[in-house]
Each structure stands twice: as C-alpha cells, then as structure tokens.
Design a protein that fits this description.
Layout (H helix, E strand, L loop, with lengths): L3 E4 L13 E4 H4 L4 H12 L7 E6 L5 H14 L4 E9 L2 H10 L4 E5 L11 E7 L8 H11 L4 E4 L11 E5 L2 E6 L3 H10 L2 H9 L4 E4 L5 H12 L7 E2 L20 H8 L6 E5 L6 E5 L2 E3 L1 H11 L13 E4 L5 H9 L3 E4 L4 H8 L5 E4 L3 E4 L7 H15 L3 H12 L1 E12 L1 H14 L7 E2 L2 E8 L2 E2 L6 E2 L4 E5 L3 E7 L7 E11 L9 H16 L1 H5 L6 E2 L1
Parallel strand pairs: 3-4, 3-5, 4-9, 10-11, 10-12, 15-16, 15-17
Antiparallel strand pairs: 1-7, 2-6, 5-6, 8-9, 12-13, 13-14, 17-18, 19-26, 19-27, 20-21, 21-24, 22-23, 24-25, 25-26
Helix pairs in contact: 2-3, 2-5, 7-13, 10-11
Bound molecules: 6-O-phosphono-alpha-D-glucopyranose and zinc ion.
6-O-phosphono-alpha-D-glucopyranose binds next to loops.
Keywords: Isomerase, Magnesium, Metal-binding, Phosphoprotein
Catalytic activity: alpha-D-glucose 1-phosphate = alpha-D-glucose 6-phosphate
EC number: 5.4.2.2
Length: 543
C-alpha cells in the first residue's frame, strides 16, 4: 500500500494551550484540521521511525474517527508500533502509565478533559512526551510552528481497523497492539495503596459513591472499587462512558457533580464520595457533609501519604500550582519538606518529578498526583484517600477537621467569569499589571496589601523562566487573591479570581466559605475593577 502524500494548507489557530489543542468538534471536523495537527506532532517527534507510540482517548464524540486517522498517519510516518486502548479508550493517567512502562517515545491523547462533549461539545488532541507527561512548552511551540507552515500530510488509504478485540494486528509495516485500557493501571494502583487494608474496611461496612459522570473512569472505577476492593455493585454511578457524557459537564466540582453533593450532604450520605472528570485525571473528594477543596486535599495527602505502601519512605518534596492555596506549604514546613510553587499546568511538575525533587503535587483545578506517572490522576487520589481513611480509622470529614485543628484552615474559593469578551479581559489584566507597583501598603476594607507581583517561574531543574503567569496580591492579614485568565477555554475569555484567607489552628473553622472570604472578594473587585471591565455583578461559577 503506497503512502499517500496529500497537499494541505495551514490553519492559523493550532497553537496548543495549557493542555493540548482544544477546539469545538465542528472545528476539528473541518477538512484536514485533524490531519494537519497530527502531522505536525509526528514531524516534531525525533526518532519516531520504528518507535512505539501510545494512543487513546476519553471516548468523547469524534474519538473513534480520530483514533483511526492517527493510526493511518502513524503508519504512513514510519512509527513502529502503536499501543492503543481497546475501542480507542484510555484515561489520561492510564496513557501516561503506558507511555512509561512500554518505553514509548510519547503518546497522543484525545480529550478535552472536563469540557462537555458531543457533536457540539469540545474535542482535543494532546501530545505527551516519553516521560509520560504533557509536552513541555518548547515542544508545543515547535508543533505550532510546524502546523503554521504545513504543506502536506502523509496517510494510507486503508479501511478502519477493528479496535474491539485485544491483540496485535498489522497496519502496513506498523504493529497495532490493542490492550485492555484498565489492566496495567489497576496493577499499578495495587502497588501504591494497600488493597487488603481497604478491603477489610469495606468488609467492615464502609460505603462510598463514585460518580464517573458518564466519562472514562467508569470502567476503571468498576474494576478497582467494585471488583478488586469488594465494594457493592452500584458504588460506581454513571459508569458507562458515553460520547456526550450523557449531557453531564464532566468537571468534578460541587456545581457540576451536584447529585453527588446532594447525596453527601443529605441524610443518606455514605462514608465517602468521589468523582472524576472526562479523561480521568481530575478528582473530587467529599466527606460526609463536607466538600474537600482540592487545595486541602493535597495538604491532607501530603500529611498522611506515608501510610500507603507507595510512599512508605516519606516524600522528597511537594509542589502546588501558584493559585492553589498555601495549605500544603504549611504541611511541608512542619515536615521539613521542600515546597515548590509552579505556574498553572501539569507540565510544570514534570521536571521536578523527573529530578526526584518532589513526590506529590496538586492544583486547585482538582488535579492531584505523584511520581507514579507524569499526569494528575483522579482515581489514584481517591484510592490514596481510601487508604488513609483505612489506616487512620477516621472518616474523611474528621480527617479534614483534625487537619485544620493542627495546621489552621485556608478558606478558599475560585470565582470564574466565563465568556468575557477577550478585549475586556485583556484590558483588565493590563491595567492590573500596570497598577502593581502602587499597590503595596494600600488598604482595602480591613486588608492591607503586603506584596503584589506578576508571577514568573524559574524552573530550578532546567533554569528556564516562564513569566506573566498571573497576578498575586498578598495581604498582611494572611489573605491572598490571584488573578489569571484561563488557558483552556474554547471561546471568549475566562477570568479566574482565586480567593483565600487563613484562619489559625485555634480559629473559627466552621464559617460559610463565602462569609470568610467576603472581604477578600470585595478587595479583589476594588483592585481589579472586575465589574467595571466585565460588566458582571457576580461570577458565573463559584467553586
Ligand atoms: C488543565 C491542566 C491543568 C490546569 C488546568 C488549568 O486541566 O491539565 O494542569 O490546572 O488546565 O485550566 P485553566 O482553564 O485555569 O487554564
Ligand atoms: Zn482532565
């Protein structure tokens, strides 16, 4: 079968964002749109000839078609072997694991993460490097430059492969290895957490609900929670991945996982609740009557991870993204661990993990992970929580309250202003940046600005500097507000305002979050002119 070289012209908008190229499905369906981007990725993989590539996606609408396109193009570009999940499915963490364990040169992951799917929803293509993590900036920039100048792509004229059965088949010279998406991932989890201990807790009557939001983690959670850990059938709800996620917005937060929140705050709440997102890398943790913020979750995991077999030797260090609350910093300080502050985006943890400087890391955007792979990992976080609950013999809500009694509580909320006009959002950030030098010492209500800057990250491993990652304003009263624009949206701009305020160990830990943060929110508006610039009286989403 001769390789086809087909002429094409570039699209100007193929610059990958925080996490790969994300656009609406109709954009991806434009003739040559997928092909251009995939060819650009392949062109940027040095040594792809004969190498192994991992491929899979979260099963959203268009996943099947794009898997077939990528297979043909990979074969036409000389790739030696593609390890693909059965039916083209792989959660992001499972893909990261396969890239590492199969010594692949990288992986192509099809997902728009937590964005809604379906014919009018979002789609995405992301390239992960041989360490299993999202490609670093120089690589995504190279892909963008390639895509901006592309003139032809290579493919084959072959029928679709049947991806429904495990095993190996040949596509011209390339081996296509179809694997069960769950097996290797589940085996890895058995090495990290103590399944026997959790099984014993389940046998003792412990009950939980896991809401897969009709996205990729359903089969993973059913296998691990129900089959391997012995939880009753029905523990996993919305467990079948659907192309449109059954209309769910697969973002595990109190707003989008409302049913789970209602259950956990109602009279029939089980001991523990959890959810994951479209591609399985985010997590949501809920105790009985208590939503655990991702920032608090990271702090609790850092404080107790050593009870799990995977972390028995202790942690090398921890990291959090800049807008994530400083709760984990307090744990690190007490344990004498290095604590790094990185820009938003999982890729920034990669170097720290590869260099062995950190073991755990996390972000306010519901991502938590460790050195077991190079992506955040939703189900892993749930399992580590379960192991900690089993080891401490305390329910999640008690663990969190005890944590606050020991370290104090960082009240935390994120206010999102979605669909803001791009110019208005840019103007807000420009004015804010310009105002920074004059902010220190100014008072806003009862708060006094102590420091204010535009966060720039110096990577301690490779020395690279990433400037302009968001504005931080720190108040003398141990409160903080962070402003940044989302890097993952597909239309307009989203302004994110992150608010936090510390309450010491002997302080008040039972205030409604909105009350605890009211003064910080007012200061944020006064500083940035949110209403003035966006015309909005209130955020679209508060999480
Ligand atoms: C993706 C990345 C995360 C990041 C998040 C931020 O999910 O994988 O690492 O925290 O995007 O999204 P944002 O919309 O705030 O740029
Ligand atoms: Zn995700």
């Amino acid at each position: 079968m001769p390789i086809q070289r087909l002429a094409t012209t570039p699209f100007p908008d193929q610059r990958p964002g925080t996490s790969g190229l994300r656009k609406t499905v109709p954009v991806f369906q434009t003739a040559c749109y997928v092909e251009n981007f995939v060819q650009s990725i392949l062109d940027c993989i040095e040594g792809r000839e004969g190498a192994t590539l991992v491929l899979g996606g979260d099963g959203r609408y268009f996943n099947r078609e794009v898997v077939q396109i990528v297979l043909r193009m990979a074969a036409a570009n000389g790739v030696g072997r593609v390890v693909v999940g059965r039916d083209g499915l792989l959660s992001t963490p499972a893909a990261s694991n396969l890239i590492r364990t199969r010594k692949a040169i990288g992986g192509i992951i099809l997902s728009a993460s937590h964005n809604p799917g379906g014919p009018h929803g979002d789609f995405g293509i992301k390239f992960n490097a041989s360490n299993g993590g999202p490609a670093p900036e120089p690589v995504t920039e190279a892909i963008f430059r390639r895509a901006s100048a592309i003139t032809e792509y290579r493919t084959l004229d072959t029928p679709d492969l049947d991806l429904g059965r495990e095993g190996e088949t040949l596509l011209e010279g390339m081996r296509v290895e179809i694997v069960d998406p769950v097996t290797a991932y589940a085996a890895m989890m058995e090495r990290i957490v103590d399944f026997d201990r959790i099984r014993a807790m389940v046998a003792g009557g412990f009950r939980m609900r896991f809401d897969a939001l009709s996205a990729i983690t359903g089969p993973y959670a059913a296998e691990i929670l129900e089959r391997r850990l012995g939880m009753p059938a029905g523990t996993v709800v919305n467990g079948t991945p659907l192309p449109d996620f059954g209309g769910h917005h697969p973002d595990p937060n109190p707003v989008h996982a409302r049913e789970l929140m209602e259950l956990m705050t109602g009279p029939d709440a089980p001991d523990f609740g959890a959810a994951s997102d479209g591609d399985g890398d985010r997590n949501m943790i809920v105790g009985r009557g208590l939503f655990v913020t991702p920032s608090d979750s990271l702090a609790v995991l850092a404080a107790h991870a050593h009870v799990a077999p995977g972390y028995r030797g202790g942690l090398a260090g921890v990291a959090r993204s800049m807008p994530t609350s400083r709760a984990v910093d307090r744990v690190a300080a007490r344990l004498g661990l290095p604590c790094y502050e990185t820009p938003t985006g999982w890729k920034f943890f990669g170097n720290l993990l590869d260099a062995g400087r950190i073991t755990l890391c996390g972000e306010e955007s519901a991502g938590t992970g460790s050195n077991h792979i190079r992506e955040k990992d939703g189900l892993w976080a749930v399992l580590l929580w379960l192991d900690i609950i089993a080891a401490l013999g305390k329910p999640a809500d008690r663990i969190v309250r005890d944590h606050w009694r020991e370290y104090g509580r960082d009240y935390y909320a994120r206010h999102d202003y979605e669909g803001v006009e791009t110019e208005a959002a840019d103007r807000l950030m420009t004015e804010l940046r310009a105002a920074l030098p004059g902010l220190v010492g100014k008072r806003f209500g009862g708060l006094t600005v102590r420091e204010a800057d535009d966060f720039a990250y110096s990577d301690p491993v490779d020395g690279s500097v990433t400037p302009r990652q968001g504005v931080r304003v720190l108040f003398a009263e141990d409160a903080r507000v962070v402003f940044r624009l989302s890097g993952t949206g597909t239309s307009g701009a989203t302004l994110r305002v992150y608010l936090e305020r510390y309450e010491p160990a002997d302080g008040r830990h039972d205030l409604p979050t909105a009350d605890a943060l009211a003064e910080v929110a007012a200061a944020a508006d006064a500083i940035a002119g949110i209403r003035r610039h966006t015309g909005r009286d209130e955020p679209s989403v508060v999480t």
